[in-house]
Amino acid sequence: MPRKNSTDTKIYVLDTNILLHEPHAFLSFKEHDVVIPMTVLEELDYIKDSKKDVARDARVSIRAMEDLLHDATPEDMLAGVSMEGLGAGQTAPTGSLSIFADLNMVEAQQVFTSNENDNRIINVALHLQKTFAPQKVVLVTKDLNMRLKAKGAGLAHVEDYRTDQLITDIKYLSRGFHTFEGNLWDSVKSVDSRTEGRDTIHTIPKSMLLEAYVNEFLLDETKQFAGLVEEITDDHLEVLDLGYERLMGRHAWGITPKNIGQAMALHALLDPHIDMVILTGPAGSGKTLLALAAALEMVVERNMYDKIIVTRSTPEIAESIGFLPGTEEEKMLPWLAAITDSLEVLHKHDENTKGSMNYIMEKANIQYKSVNFMRGRSIQNAIVILDESQNLTASQLKTIITRCGEGTKLIVGGNLAQIDSNYLSAVTSGLTYLVEKFKDFSGSATINLDGVVRSRLASFAEENL
Known about the structure:
- There is one protein chain.
- The chain is of the alpha/beta class.
- It folds into 2 domains: 10-159, Rossmann fold; 273-464, P-loop containing nucleotide triphosphate hydrolases (Rossmann fold), CATH 3.40.50.300.
- It contains 15 helices and 18 strands.
- A 6-stranded mixed sheet has the order 3-4-2-1-5-6. Strands 7-10-11-12-9-8 form a 6-stranded mixed sheet, with no helix packed on it.
- Strand 10 (217-220) and strand 11 form a beta hairpin.
- Helix 9 (287-301) crosses helix 11.
């Protein structure tokens, strides 16, 4: 049990899904004490040997706790072992980590009598709340139903894990562009312009846009000006003049943009100096089609990359994919139908659509891969398209990004309104974390596509359902 009994500190009881979401989460509670119920260790033990996509996270978390507790006696583990000096940049007072042997709880102390894991974890929190009153005991879980059950059972404090939550509301998420009211030049007090080859660079005061980022697009309401922030100093912004009409004239693999959002996305996708492009937006906004068209243009037409790797998370088949017949690509086809649909759209005017698709897939060296089997790889000189990324955690996205080697461009797409994970929301999704963490990285660009162009039916459904 925790060593402290003070109203100045809290006791946090962690659910298993917290350690799967962030394996080192137990280090994030500063001076407060952290309790890991034995049931959580049992669940981690079961998951670490499975073929689920979170198995690695379970192993990382177990190793991190073992590093802290390996010299502790059984009595120390129950009482709590100090986590001093373990947190990143840690200087403030630290709490302790303890393991609670909930398997030995007296039956009379339990509120829930059924032996479900969630109930056993809630019983631990309720027992600590009674034992350590008036010290605040907080159950931390990403399971919404478990939070409801805990409160219904009498637990006063239940929370989601928000340490890695960078924004409080999705409306504050960076969109990758800024639109000025009226005509931009009417609001510019001073500007220096210069020509570099074919390009025109404008130097404008930073006071016009205090929160500007490199590779952020600038537009105005007149639909005359379009620019890209190339450099930021303490006082000025260096803006590349793209021209609204010229930007709308970009094209790739026969595809031209249908709105300015798609035009900005296409510009970023075709820019060889941008290593990662993040595309967010509703279903039907063109994320996958633009990504694939740009990838084909750069691989087949421009010979800038050697291959295209298409991947997405497949948690529902992670345990069974190895037993399905066929190659990995054949197993992945049902979960990457959006890519084959987009290929059909790109070649619908060809007389032999299927033959044309097969030829291009071979020429572009398009490979279908599961996220679950990309760990340990080093991908060189390729375009990686990561689809449906809203269902991944920040830790899982980090695993994928760190696979990208020299000369590789990563295209990340996702719709934060269609999250299938039980433990993620729009503000805690790895996609949201990625957008916010990389918004000031000069090698990345983010574009929010806010128009549904798939069909008028899809547009009406997006706006009214």
